[in-house]
Amino acid sequence: MAPVLAAELLSAALFGYSGEPLTIFAIGGWLLTLGIGVNYAIFLREGIERRGATTIAVLLSAATTLLAWGLLATSSVAALRQFGLALVTGISIAVLLAPLALRKPA
Q1: Dihedral through CA 87, CA 92, CA 58, CA 44, nearest 10?
Q2: Of 19, 46, 51, 77, which sits with the fewest C-beta atoms within 10 Å of its C-beta?
Q3: Does residue 104 carry a pLDDT above 70?
């Protein structure tokens, strides 16, 4: 869960750096990111026997998630934009940090 929490903190830092206000919609997006990001880390950790196929599956899943939810970041409605921005930044960072959850070889 540590990689996903780090992604959440980095996403919040990006919000602060860019001057975006923290709203309940951004927090809702981060809660959804928490659930999705944990799944990425679990799938990578448990699918170690087929590392290549698992990695491609997680990357494709992240791509479709970013496409589906991330398009909300382009909305002119402030609530939808906040939700989409939180998901885009959180999911992007979570999928990049998910390999940190892999087991270390003994």
Answers
A1: -110
A2: 19
A3: no
Query: 40 with 94: CB under 8 angstroms?
Result: yes
Cα 67 to its chain centre, rounded Å, is 12
- Residue environment code for 61-78, b if the CB has 16+ CB neighbours within 10 A, otherwise e: bbeebbeebbebbeeeee
- If we measure between CA atoms, which residue out of 105, 106, 95, 92 comes closest to residue 42? 95
**Residues 33-68: tens digit of each pLDDT:** 999 999 998 898 888 788 889 899 999 999 999 999
Return the structure tokens found at 11.
Answer: 């996403």
* Residue 98 one-letter amino acid: A
pTM here is 0.85
Residue burial 25-39, b: 16+ Cβ < 10 Å; e: rest:
bbeebbebbbebbbe
Q: How is the chain split among helix, strand and coil, in percent rounded to 5?
A: 85, 0, 15
Encoding tokens for residue 97?
Answer: 């940090």
